[in-house]
């Protein structure tokens, strides 16, 4: 007994149509090669920004919630974003941009011909505009990368001993009321 039965009959039915199959294959093969030739630099840069932010987000959430085995929880990027503070924390400021980046990354991750325009950056535009108001960007991906730096900076967890040193160093700083 053979593992595949009826293959000879299938081959006989298909044999008279092999030229049609070959023509269809050539068309599909050209389409496939065109996709491979397409420039995907933006995809790589967006994915890289997404991964960098996720790394910082993991460190922030681990510290913020005191979870030692955070990697074992296995949360999605969207779930991690949901856990970020929405108030009374500097991270709340960048949270909307992180959510937008995830939307953009998902669009690029599921569409071979994905593009992003400056006006589609939403909260990323707002955040970068506030932090770097004079910066000029040649393309949306450059602005996403600038946002990545901002978001990661806002999520840095300073070790307690350095926080203490910082507080000591600035403990005697006073601003004269006339300078306000």
Could you name the key traits of this structure?
single chain; 180 residues; mainly alpha; 66% helix
What does this structure look like?
It is a single chain. This protein is mostly helical and 180 residues long. 66% of the residues lie in helices and 0% in strands. The chain contains 9 helices and no strands. It has helices at residues 7-14, 18-37, 41-65, 70-73, 77-83, 91-110, 123-131, 140-155, 160-169. Helix 3 runs antiparallel to helix 6 and helix 7 (123-131) packs across helix 8 (140-155). The N and C termini lie far apart (92 Å). The mean pLDDT is 88.
Q: Could you provide a short overview of the structure?
A:
With 180 residues, this protein is mostly helical.
Distance between the termini: 92 Å
Largest sheet: none
Q: Mean pLDDT score, rounded?
A: 88
**What ranges have pLDDT less than 50 throughout 5 or more consecutive residues?**
none
User: Number of helical segments?
Assistant: 9
Rough shape?
A: elongated
As a percent range, the share of helical residues equals 55-70%
Return the structural class.
mainly alpha
CA radius of gyration is 26 Å
Count of DSSP E strands?
A: 0
Q: Please report which band the strand proportion falls in: under 5%, 5-15%, 15-25%, 25-35%, 35-45% or over 45%.
A: under 5%
Order of SSEs: HHHHHHHHH
Helix and strand layout, with pairings?
Blueprint: H1 7-14, H2 18-37, H3 41-65, H4 70-73, H5 77-83, H6 91-110, H7 123-131, H8 140-155, H9 160-169
């Amino acid at each position: 007994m053979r593992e595949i039965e009826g293959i000879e009959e299938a081959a006989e039915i298909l044999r008279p149509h092999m030229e049609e199959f070959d023509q269809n294959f050539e068309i599909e093969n050209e389409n496939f090669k065109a996709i491979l030739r397409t420039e995907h630099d933006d995809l790589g840069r967006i994915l890289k920004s997404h991964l960098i932010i996720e790394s910082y987000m993991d460190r922030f959430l681990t510290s913020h919630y005191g979870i030692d085995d955070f990697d074992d929880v296995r949360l999605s990027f969207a779930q991690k974003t949901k856990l970020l503070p929405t108030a009374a924390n500097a991270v709340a400021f960048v949270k909307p941009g992180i959510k937008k980046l995830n939307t953009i990354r998902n669009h690029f991750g599921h569409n071979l011909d994905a593009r992003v325009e400056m006006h589609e950056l939403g909260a990323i535009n707002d955040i970068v505009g506030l932090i770097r108001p004079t910066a000029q960007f040649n393309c949306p991906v450059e602005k996403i990368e600038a946002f990545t730096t901002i978001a990661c900076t806002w999520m840095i967890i300073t070790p307690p001993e350095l926080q203490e040193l910082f507080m000591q160093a600035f403990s005697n700083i006073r601003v004269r009321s006339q300078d306000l």
